[in-house]
Write a structure and sequence with these properties.
CATH superfamily of the largest domain: Aminohydrolase, N-terminal nucleophile (Ntn) domain
Largest sheet: 6 strands, antiparallel
Number of domains: 4
Structural class: alpha+beta
Strand content: 15-25%
Radius of gyration: 25 Å
CATH topology of the largest domain: Glutamine Phosphoribosylpyrophosphate, subunit 1, domain 1
Shape: globular
Distance between the termini: 36 Å
Length: 661
Amino acid sequence: MCGIAGVVDPGTGEDALRAMATGMAAALTHRGPDDAGSWVDAGAGLALGHRRLSIIDLSASGHQPMVSADGRWVITYNGELYNAPGLRRELKSAGTTFRGESDTEVFLEAIARWGVRPALVRANAMFALAAWDRHARALYLARDRMGEKPLYYGRRGRRLVFASELKAITALGGASLEIDHSAVLAYLRHSYVPCPRSIYQGIAKLAPAQVLRIDLTGGVPGVLAAPEAYWSLAEVAAAGLADPADLDDAGAADALEAALAKAVSERMASDVALGATLSGGIDSSTVVALMARAGSGTPRTFSIGFGEDLYNEAPAAKAVAAHLGTEHTELYVTPKECLALVPDVAAVYDEPFADSSQVPTMAVCALARRHVTVALSGDGGDELFWGYDRYGFMASYGDRLARLPPRLRRGAVRPLRAMSTERLQGLADALGPLAPRALRNPHAGHRLQRMADLLATSGPHDLYRQLMSQIRQPETFLAGVNESSSALSDTSWMPGGLGADSFGPLADQANYLPDDILTKVDRASMAASLELRAPFLDPDVVALAWRLAPTMKRRGGQGKWLLRQVLYRHVPPALVDRPKQGFGVPIGEWLRGPLRDWASDLLASEAVARHGLLDPAAVSRAWADHQSGRSELPYAIWNLCVLQGWLEGASAGSSQPLRHR
């Protein structure tokens, strides 16, 4: 895996351009510690930079940026092309001559022969790339279908810039970067900045499955053209729902196992040591089982353990590894060791990002990298095969909610919203044993407010947005700002007539998966110079998942039903059938315990006021509620802490103060 970067600054000399690209790429050394390169077209004012993590073809023939055999195209590429062998054969039969064995060269020559868009359509890959057409003087930026690899682009002053991570753009220097306040609101709500925004004004994320053509015949254009999609998740979902697979349970399990086995096999291609992360859950266990079945040696597996039983999946992973006969490595991490990673979060993730499972993810990636350079993971299994409880809740609650007359719902919502959290808590406490079990606790006031929010929703989109909001009213902390629009707030891209049971999975695949899950694993793995590959995100697996009937994915109140049937062919049910834990940490307890002083410093009124972004009084109230036990929203506090930590780091690492709009 690699890091890519580039700058367009017409009128700048070749040496200065090369220095810019080299400096940007140097900020991405963790993504590619094995090699570095740059390429300059001084006439166009273009410089490309690259850092390489050597995986396929370790020789110099894989060096990047790479020029096509005909001299027309130049590419800087971060990714793996899983169907490279088949494309290589096809290109050879058409007359292409190859100089090396890298998949980069296959992608490059596919572009040279077929054009950018046809090559993207044919590619089964995870990637972010920049391709320069020297004849047409056009720069193309593109990203893989499901959003496994990141790509930021935009302007810094007069310059056009792009890179795998924001740190390469901030390393370039120049005009000050302004924080996008509307993106901050979206971050506070969701724990991440939704695509296409970034935390900075003028810098965007290229969305999954998009390609952007930038015409440089007249220099840097005043307005960039809108990116275009070369593949559509919505169309794949609509096609699958319109033409469901005519398969019984056994036939569906056979089809799914075959598709996953092919995806796993293709992702095992490597010229360096390879393994897998293993939690002992359904998704990662299925991947490892199919790796073992592939028969190309004993798989190496890695897991992290915790002393707290509620969060510890290591014993389950160890049992699965023993059954499958893997070479297993586990590392138990103490709270002190895990907490030592917390200050690194801002540096690793570049912009505010607050999925607290980022901490153990960083730990397991660091563990795996001690032994291998490539690892397979089970990411995507929950979203494709309905593993999250919220999908069942949306289907059942959404149906019941739709049957309630609007007048009745409004009548229940008004009094709940008219009362403060404290008063609602007092009423619940006064009822004592007469209150429902769910309200017999110190968090009843917040739960009743949450109930009011859910009762007020209208339709699956509104319900989904509420369920995915860590802070439901982020404007409390940043008044007078409109939240940025994204695919989370505008669902016009979704196919019509989508049922409540399918809405959540599709919304997650388009938003939560790339912007949260895949961002988390990309940054954590790349910080350790580890390449992580996700077989569940193979386009054939995605398409098959959408052709499977809902009852194949959720049955008897249990998610991932069909995926379980595949796994049971390799692993006894007793080893993997247990309540879903998730890959998390006890963030609420930590914030009241070992992280309390750290959080108190970050959220102190003077610290908040110093950055001039959030309302110090609102932050103080939220922190006090959490410390007193009145609030059961630790993830909201974590969002605030991560944002403040990022502001501290961004200010300290910038030659110029961050500016606010």
